[in-house]
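ok so I'm stuck.
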Amino acid sequence: MNLLEKIIYKIRYKLALIEIKSYIKNKNQKTSISDNNLYPAFCKLASEKESAFRKFRTNPIYNLILEHVDAKQGQEYISEIEKNEPKFTEYEWEEFKNNDLYGSPRKYSYVINNKSHLISPTTLRYVKVLHDLLCLYNCNSIKSIAEIGIGYGGQCRIITSYLKDVSVTLYDLPETNSLAQKYLKNFSQFSLFNFIDANQPLNENKKSFDLVISNYAFSELTRKIQDKYLQEVILNSKSGYITYNELSNKMLDGYSAEDIIKIIPNSRIIEEKPLTYKNNCIIIWGTK
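replied:
not stuck anymore, here's the structure
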């Protein structure tokens, strides 16, 4: 960012912080205002206040956690998608772009299938994950999916726009779930989604899933919470795709990727392509 952009960003951040503080005070929320709690507080605000929802994907507080994929990374995702089958049709790309109808994301022009498309880089990342799933797994046999850490619901919306006959169980904080519900209610797939409060028992009936996915979220949890997901969700999943970073291992006494593949039977580590940060990787199992 240049100097003017930095000044504008600081002003927008301060205004967003004032709005959240006012919201918490007026609602008598118990959530404290700290770096760790700003994100769920904003998610709750955006789920309840239409003006905040309309632009939540460019809110500077929200962007501390999500929607910070830049234009260059978006092009890298397209390049990776185009390397292998399947090739998405023009109709499918138009359907993917529906992810950007809400929340006012930053969108850029990309050439896809020899045609210019205005699409957000974050949506391109979600399409790349879908493409990986289609390459790695027999997706015709996947009928139930669990997602750990759901953002605003964009990843599961992309997946269910392509894989029609699936049910998806979504695990996250109640505030995040509220925002995702508001977003996903705009789409016909909403009935496919089951939202689970991550503060409650995750899988009391030990339900088995055909696939579990997580975009960084599982690798950003404390070891105690990772163990909870491992025992109640991940080890009850026939296959999995977990994009992993080093945050928990370095800062929260969490597991390393090498630790995880010792815990999950027949799992292995593959490269993250494109690599978004040093030492990031993807943990997979149950592939073709």
